[in-house]
Amino acid sequence: MTRRRALFAVAAAALTGAAAPTMLISDLSQARIEIDTTFKGADLLVYGAIQYPAGARPDRAPDIAVVVRGPAAPVTVRRKERLAGIWVNADSQRFESVPGFYAVATTRPIAELADDRTTAIYEIGVDNLQLSPVGGDADRSFEAGLIAEKRRAGLFSEASRGVTITRGVLYRARVALPAAVPVGEYMAEIHMIRGGRVIASSQVPITIDKSGFERWVYLMAQEYSLAYGLAAVASALLAGLVASLISRRD
Amino acid sequence: MDLYLPIAEMSVNVLVIILLGGGVGFLSGMFGVGGGFLTTPLLIFYGIPPAVAVASSATQITGASVSGALAYWRRGQVDVKMGLVLVAGGVVGAGLGQIVFRQLQKLGQIDVAINLLYVLFLGTIGTLMLRQALSELRRVRAGGSATPGGRRHHPWVAALPGRMRFYKSGLYISPLAPLLLGALVGVLTVILGIGGGFIMVPAMLYVLGMAATAVVGTSLFQIIFVTAVTTLLHATSSKSVDIVLALLLLAGGVAGAQLGVRAAQRLRPEKLRLALALLVLAVAVRLLIGLTLAPASLYTLQGE
């Protein structure tokens, strides 16, 4: 995928007549984000420089789109309906690949950046995500519901003026990760767009993982679930016993 | 002060959780109930995923029941034989409840089912308690004694085959009756994250006809074991026990219970029972309103 995109960028540059392709050099404030007991969410800074062929800086700054996405997983979306006066889950729709986190920051509103086809190919914008509904989501109402829920949780976001470009060369974007951000391997994709075309792209991986006590507890619960359950019971009993001893002294 | 919960996978305010545990602990100390029926809905209102709320609440109840059970044990008010029969039923019920829980989770109906069952049980028990409390209050007003007259077990219980002697309970009945009662409460413990004391105690008194002195101690004895088994089931199957959440709730609950016991000594028992009945009904009504009002969002997401 990465290679194909790079090739595409090279081809695009060749078509526009540039001698050498424009390059994006990107980095992150943190390549690894650790979730510990005090984790309340984090701010990720994606920044870098645009390297023009032969240092020829254009008069007008190009557009940049920064996409940060988390690992994709299947998600079932359920719709509530009123049944005999109460709201119960009725219809459902399964989506095969929903990113656990998706944030896009751009220099201008997405609709002004490029045509729908280009933004769909590069999955720029929450409405352009290919979520793979099983059997097709005919009226896209489940997709809209999914996106609204993810946005509400801060797990999907769009910032139409979230990228700032300094002197046409340096760019940066701040992406907010909420406390409920799922763990896993993330990818920051940076696309440079000019004249409705993506002319350069770069990618930087990010790892989000639980650390220290959180990680230990989580791993215990997942891998040694019986021992974890016994430990939970034992510590609850112990806490109750200690409390009983304290109250007896009164 | 915020803390990230490892299993619930969210950041919570520690003070809010401890106060929540403390508030429920206060009420449970005051009324002599476990308070699981308050903890679970309150945790869900706060935003804890229902599965985690139910599982962690069960763990918390184990700890919260220990001091009470020990106190009754020292006074010899635990019928171990009856307790073990109830536990045996409870384990079977917990196993059955676990199958139902998983099935509902798969169908995506677990949240609705938890809420509906709460409304149903709290509504029924609350209404029964209210009637009882009101008639008691009237009796006290009329100058009579607050305790109801002679106890006798339900005719259905007498019809069951095979009999066993339970000395401390003062009973000679079929063990099938407490076994079934234990199983019913076990199912509820797994699905609702409650100890079930508020169902168990009246059932022991009015269905089994147990001696009042042994009822609360035996109920607490049973609750410790069944909630412990429930914790193990949730830990191994849905992996939704949050040990940090359970311990935070316990910390608040233990302190709150002490205050509650002291507060209860200044109030008349029949008024306490009336207040408890109203509280149970209030929770049921709140949950019912939640089920009937149009939700803020029609869509819910479930990952794997």
Give descriptors for this structure.
heterodimer, A: alpha+beta, Immunoglobulin-like, six-stranded mixed sheet, 12 strands, B: mainly alpha, two-stranded antiparallel ribbon, 11 helices, globular
Overview of the structural elements:
The complex is a heterodimer of chains A (250) and B (304). Chain A has 250 residues and is of the alpha+beta class. Chain A has helices at 2-16, 110-113, 116-121, 141-152, 212-223, 225-249, and strands at residues 23-28, 32-35, 42-51, 63-69, 72-83, 86-99, 102-106, 156-159, 163-166, 170-177, 184-194, 197-210. In chain A, strands 2-12-11-4-7-8 form a 6-stranded mixed sheet. In chain A, helix 5 crosses helix 6. The radius of gyration of chain A is 23 Å and the shape is globular. The longest helix of chain B is centred in the middle third of the chain and has 32 residues, at 110-141. Chain B contains 11 helices and 5 strands; from the N terminus they run ββααααααββαααααβ. Chain B is mostly helical. In chain B, the strands form 2 sheets. Chain B has a two-stranded antiparallel ribbon. In chain B, strands 3-4 form a two-stranded antiparallel ribbon. Chain B starts with a strand and ends with a strand. In chain B, strand 3 (164-166) and strand 4 (171-173) form a beta hairpin. Chains A and B meet through strand 5, strand 6, helix 4, helix 5 and helix 6 of A and strand 1, helix 3, helix 5, helix 9 and helix 10 of B. Strand 5 (72-83) of chain A pairs antiparallel with strand 5 of chain B, so a sheet runs across the interface.
